[in-house]
Specification:
It comes from Enterobacter soli. The chain has 201 residues and is mostly beta strands. Helix content is 0%, strand content 40%.
């Protein structure tokens, strides 16, 4: 009997919006049937953001061979720019500090894993799936603007946009996500939980 190649099934990326801001009324609303996860940081300069599809981004099902070249070497590293699944983070409002007379100059996006990093893997969001999880596969996120990984080699994150020219910061910002292996891949589910903070300076 022929064995079918391993696949990664119904993978996804869950973006949990970090609302960076002071006590701002009406930041989010949810119906009784929707479960919402929010992580908040309190800073003086805040932006209200939203992510399409309630923050759930679904990557396509792929074959295990996608990760390898014909000689079985890894096809991609975490810093290799390769097309991925696009998603949008929308900045819908920013609140300036009452003591600040200056306008918005830089919009900063910061990404971090909800459940920490793999050992020595600081540019790959690890697989948080617990049942039927694929092994040695995570997700990398790239900024469409700079075409670079949103995580630096030390795990820090700061994707900056110069928005000093006016109200142009109130718009959609494009990113994309793809799979990344960190070892020998086995088939299964991939789910990465990612926190996103947005603030301005």
């Amino acid at each position: 009997m022929q064995q079918l190649p391993s696949k990664l099934h119904q993978p996804g990326l869950v973006l949990l919006i970090g609302l960076a801001g002071g006590l701002v009324p009406g930041v989010s609303q949810a119906s009784a049937s929707v479960e919402t996860n929010l992580t908040a940081n309190i800073v003086n300069a805040t932006c209200q953001v939203s992510v399409e599809n309630n923050g759930e981004i679904y990557l396509p099902t792929i074959m295990r061979g996608w990760f390898y070249n014909s000689d079985n070497s890894n096809r991609l590293t975490p810093s290799d720019d390769e097309a991925g699944t696009p998603f949008t983070i929308q900045v819908v409002n920013c609140y300036e500090s009452e003591t600040s007379g200056a306008g918005v100059k830089q919009l900063q996006f910061s990404f971090s894993p909800k459940n920490g990093f793999w050992s020595n893997q600081y540019q790959v969001f690890k697989n948080d799936a617990t049942t039927g999880a694929a092994e040695n596969v995570g997700i990398v996120i790239f900024s469409s603007k700079s075409r670079t990984n949103v995580l630096n080699s030390d795990g820090s994150s700061n994707v900056s946009y110069d928005v000093s020219s006016g109200d142009e910061y109130l718009k959609d910002y494009q990113f994309y996500a793809r799979y990344q292996n960190i070892g020998a891949v086995t088939g299964g589910i991939v789910t990465s939980n990612v926190l996103v903070d947005v603030h301005y300076e």
